[in-house]
Description:
Blueprint: H1 7-24, H2 28-38, H3 43-72, H4 74-85, H5 87-98, H6 102-129, E1 135-136, H7 139-166, H8 174-199, H9 219-251, H10 255-280, H11 284-309, H12 324-341, E2 345-346, H13 348-367
Antiparallel strand pairs: 1-2
Amino acid sequence: MQVTNNPSTTSSALHDVLHSKVSILLLLVPLTIGAEFFFAQHRTVVFFLSALTMIPLAHFLSESTEHLAVHTGPTIGGLLNVTFGNAGELLIGYFALRQGLDGVVKASITGSILGNLLLALGVSIIAAGVKKKTLKFNALAARTRATMLALAGLSLILPAAYHYAVTSRTPGQEADLSTEFSIILLITYGLSLLFTLRTHTQLLSPGRETDDGHAVWTRKSAVTGLLLTSAFIGWISEILAGSVEAAAKQLGLTDLFVGVIVVAIAGNAAEGLSAVRSALAGRMDLSVGISLGSSTQIALFAAPALVLMSHFTGHAPMNLLFSPIEITALVVAMAITGQIAGDGDSNWFEGVQLLAVYLMLAATFFLIPG
């Protein structure tokens, strides 16, 4: 019998393997809930279980959103992706804010952006570049998202400049500045949705779509999956936020490292898997769009949304004042990603470079004392 090497068949098989492996992780949901009730004193175990549990939950939330978008059309689908695509980050951030862990929230925002720009995109380019010498993707879409990320970087630099320049004379206005910046960022992000989903859809790479060759869920199944998964994400996020501080102390890790690396990877694992899966299927436009688009959503939507949500947590409002090392890491990541993605082609070694930058930054965050 002759065996043919059909790329679409290979892509479908890879999708099924990844999907089945993530499905097995759903067993962590009852384990995490049980650990929270019966082994609450072991906060490190609860923390790692809840962090791992976020991976399959975020994956199935993404799946439900994608399948529902097939029934609602690209515009509503794009809005659904904005609403639910950052559910993990928003819920983890909200419950952490209720615990007064502003530093962990800002660290997870930093880590989410770094993880998407360097880790997810780097692994995706390596995975695709091993099979193909030169990788092509939509340069206009990549440059547009890179410009949006530059705007986000400016929104982080200016509060820090204000803090070190004049906050000693007008300390009460720092929170007001962050709130004003957050409103500006949310308005800008809303206009970017209008640009990408309405006025210039023909110029930019398409948004997420269900892989060809796989059955589309019914509208009822997609809505049910969306609601159930969101409920469990909210529950597990509360458990994760409640255990992060104690786990960090028991492990001898700083809140900065835990937020930048552990919490960020857990909250963005589904996005990273989607980017790698798309790259393996030869869909580099989609892979680059997921990595840069997710970072844009976090910087221009999730971060300012959390600033506004912090006004209703019973603690002092969160500001956009990130530490110097976080700002440096974000600016470096945005600069190198913009340079690599802006020309519309790449290769496996550029993926290695992105991954090397991520590992160096992770080592730096690990060694910074609390």
